[in-house]
Amino acid sequence: MKTPRSELQGKSFLWAFVLFIALFSVSAFWGKTVELDASLAAVLLAAAGFIPFLVQATTGYALDRLWVARFSRTEHPTRFWASIVISLVLAGWFSFAAYSMYATRDAA
Fold first, then answer.
1. Boundaries of every domain in the chain
2. What's the distance, CA 104 to chain centroid?
3. Is this model's pTM higher than 0.85 or not?
């Protein structure tokens, strides 16, 4: 892994949070209203879960609660890796939720 770029530290990734909320709400709440295909809704829901991980993995900084890049993997390795693990658990949970919610809807 390359060293994180210092100009990203302290940068807000609020756009990623907005994308996360948009994908989640489209797939979970508006899907039936706009007659979204169940498999596409499942993909959107799973993709929403991977956004925090992708931002952290590509920037080299863990996000704080306000989605600001705070903790680098070189300066704060414990916080960085804990945040990566939490974001992967979130991604797995969203993927499982997508599968369990929409796989049964396709079968019916």
1. 11-107
2. 24
3. no
